[in-house]
Design a protein that fits this description.
Blueprint: H1 2-34, H2 36-39, H3 46-82, H4 85-91, H5 96-138, E1 150-151, E2 157-165, E3 170-178, E4 187-198, E5 204-217, E6 235-248, H6 271-300, E7 303-307, E8 321-325, H7 332-336, H8 340-406, H9 412-437, H10 443-466, H11 474-491
Antiparallel strand pairs: 1-2, 2-3, 3-4, 4-5, 5-6, 7-8
Helix pairs in contact: 1-3, 1-5, 3-5, 3-8, 3-9, 5-8, 6-8, 8-9, 8-10, 9-10
C-alpha cells in the first residue's frame, strides 16, 4: 500500500508543479497586459523588472494554487481512468477514498501552507509590488523626441525636431520653446542643425546647436511702467553659429517611495493587524453614530442631557451621559396669536432649521457609509485568507472524482473543465464580495457563499465516483431520454389507424 501511495503522489506532484507554473505565467501575463502602458518606454533596468515580477508572482500564489490543484487532480485521476489503473485498483479491493487518501493528506498540508503564505508572506509581497508599481507609474517615460512632433515631457520646455539622421545622430530644424520662468512663451530658440546628448546620470539634456537664432521678450521691471499710458515691449534677438543649451531633467529616474506610506493598506496586513483595524474603526464608527444622535436630539429636539460623573477621568458628554426629551406641547395656539409678519418669520426659521438638519444628516450619512465600506474592505481581506486556503480542499474534491468519472487525461478536457469550474467559483466569489462591499450581505455570508455552493458539488461528485456512476457518459443520457420518450408515449398513446386509413 505504501508503494501505491508513493506512486499516486508522484503521479499527482508532476502535473501539480507543471500546472502551477502555467497558471502563474498566465496571471503574470494578464497583469503585464493590463499595465503595459505604465511599463513600456521608461528605460527600466532588468533588476527593477525582475524584482517587480518576483513580488507579483508571490502575490498570485494564493489564487493560482487552487486552480493548479483542480487541474492537476483532473489530469492525474483522468490518466488513471484512461489507462485503466483506477479500474485495477478498485478490482483489487481498494475503494476510491483510499486511493484519494495520500493526495488528501497533501491537500491538508497545502491548505496550511496557503494559509501561512496568505497571512505572513502575501502582505509583504503586496507591499513590495504595489509600492514598486507606484514608483514606476510615477516615473516619466524615457526621453524620446520624435521628428515632426512637439515633445512636452520636460517641465518648462516644448521641443520640436524637423528630422533625424540616425547614421550621424544629427538633428535638423530644431525649435525649443522655453517656459521655465512661468511667464508665458517669452523665449524661443531655432537652429538649423544640432546634436542632443543625455548625460550618463540622466540629470541633464545637452543641445549643441549650429546656425540659429534666439528670440526673447524682456520683462520691463520699471515700477512706474504700469502708470504709463503707452506700454513698451522690449525684445532681443541673437544670432549664433554655435550654442550649447543645458536643460535639467527631473522625474526621469526611478525614485523609491518609503514603503511605510503603504503598509496600513488592508491588503498588506495580516490577521492580527486586520482585526486590530476592524475593532478600532468599528469603535470610531459607533462613537460617530452616537455623536450624530446626540447632536440631533440636543440641537433640534430640545433634548436635555443629564451628565453623571462616574470617575475622575470621565468627561461630559461621554458614555455616562443620559437625558430626557422635553415634554410635547401644542404650538398652534401660540402660533395663531402671532401677527402675519411674525408667522412668516417663525415659518422661515423653522424651514431653515429643517434644511440645516437635513443637510447635516445627509453629510454624516455619507461619512458613515464611507467608513462602513472601509471596514468591510478589512473584513473581506480577513475572510479571504481563509476562503482561498480552503478552496484548495474544495477543488481537490471536485477535480479528483470528476477525473475518475470522465476518465480523460492529458491537457485538453481537464483544462476546459477546470476553467469552467474556476470561472464559476470566481464569479460567485466576486458577486459575494461586491454585496459585502455594498453592505448588502454580512461579510461571512458574502465571502463564504462560493464555498457553500461548491462544497456540496464536491461531495456529490465524490459519492457518484465511488459508486461508478456514469454521469459524464453520453450513452447514459441517451438511454435516459429514450426511457423518458417511452414513458411519454405510454401516457399519451397515439390514435390507432382504421381500415379506411
Amino acid at each position: 500500500m505504501k508503494r501505491l501511495h508513493r506512486y499516486i503522489l508522484r503521479s499527482f506532484l508532476g502535473p501539480l508543479i507543471l500546472t502551477f507554473f502555467i497558471v502563474m505565467f498566465l496571471m503574470i501575463m494578464q497583469f503585464l497586459w493590463r499595465y503595459i502602458d505604465d511599463l513600456v518606454g521608461k528605460g527600466l533596468h532588468f533588476n527593477v523588472l525582475s524584482e517587480l515580477l518576483f513580488y507579483l508572482a508571490a502575490s498570485f500564489v494564493p489564487m493560482a494554487l487552487p486552480l493548479a490543484i483542480l487541474l492537476a487532480a483532473l489530469m492525474t485521476f483522468g490518466n488513471f481512468g484512461e489507462r485503466f489503473e483506477l479500474t485495477a485498483m478498485k478490482s483489487s479491493g481498494i475503494p476510491l477514498q483510499k486511493i484519494m487518501l495520500p493526495v488528501f493528506y497533501l491537500m491538508i498540508f497545502l491548505t496550511a501552507f496557503a494559509f501561512y503564505f496568505a497571512n505572513n508572506i502575501l502582505p509583504i509581497a503586496n507591499l513590495k509590488s504595489r509600492s514598486l508599481l507606484w514608483d514606476i507609474q510615477r516615473q516619466r517615460p524615457e526621453l524620446n523626441i520624435k521628428a515632426g512632433e512637439f515633445y512636452n515631457g520636460i517641465d518648462g520646455y516644448s521641443i520640436k525636431i524637423g528630422r533625424k539622421n540616425f547614421k550621424t545622430n544629427m538633428l535638423y530644424h530644431i525649435l525649443i520653446y522655453d517656459h521655465s520662468q512661468k511667464k508665458g512663451n517669452i523665449a524661443v530658440t531655432y537652429a538649423d542643425s544640432g546634436k542632443m546628448i543625455v548625460t550618463p546620470d540622466k540629470q541633464d539634456l545637452i543641445f549643441d546647436l549650429y546656425h540659429g537664432q534666439a528670440y526673447e521678450e524682456i520683462i520691463n521691471r520699471n515700477k512706474h511702467h504700469v502708470y504709463r499710458k503707452e506700454k513698451t515691449y522690449p525684445f532681443r534677438q541673437d544670432y549664433f553659429s554655435q550654442q550649447t543649451i543645458v536643460i535639467k531633467l527631473t522625474g526621469f529616474g526611478l525614485k523609491r517611495t518609503d514603503e511605510n506610506l503603504f503598509k496600513n493598506n488592508y491588503s498588506m496586513l495580516n490577521l492580527s493587524q486586520l482585526q486590530h483595524f476592524i475593532d478600532s474603526l468599528s469603535q470610531q464608527l459607533d462613537k460617530r453614530e452616537v455623536m450624530l444622535k446626540k447632536t440631533i436630539l440636543i440641537n433640534y429636539f430640545q433634548y436635555k442631557p443629564i451628565f453623571k460623573k462616574m470617575h475622575e477621568n470621565d468627561t461630559l458628554g461621554g458614555e455616562n451621559a443620559s437625558g430626557t426629551l422635553a415634554p410635547p406641547f401644542d404650538v398652534w395656539p401660540i402660533f395663531n396669536t402671532l401677527s402675519l409678519p411674525e408667522k412668516q418669520t417663525v415659518t422661515q426659521t423653522a424651514l431653515t432649521g429643517a434644511r440645516s438638519i437635513k443637510d447635516y444628516i445627509g453629510t454624516m450619512q455619507r461619512v458613515i457609509d464611507a467608513q462602513t465600506k472601509y471596514i468591510r474592505r478589512h473584513q473581506i481581506e480577513w475572510h479571504r485568507k481563509f476562503t482561498l486556503s480552503f478552496a484548495c480542499v474544495i477543488f481537490f474534491f471536485i477535480g479528483a472524482p470528476l477525473g475518475a468519472i470522465i476518465r480523460r487525461g492529458g491537457i485538453g478536457m481537464p483544462i476546459v473543465i477546470s476553467v469552467l469550474f474556476f470561472v464559476f467559483y470566481y464569479i460567485i466569489s466576486m458577486s459575494g464580495e461586491k454585496f459585502v462591499r455594498e453592505n448588502v450581505w454580512p461579510p461571512f455570508t458574502g465571502m463564504w457563499i462560493s464555498t457553500f455552493i461548491l462544497l456540496p458539488i464536491g461531495i456529490y461528485l465524490t459519492y457518484k465516483s465511488t459508486n461508478d456512476a456514469a454521469i459524464m457518459s453520453s450513452e447514459a443520457y441517451g438511454h435516459f431520454f429514450q426511457r423518458l420518450l417511452k414513458n411519454i408515449k405510454g401516457i399519451f398513446p397515439g390514435r390507432k389507424k382504421s381500415k379506411k386509413d
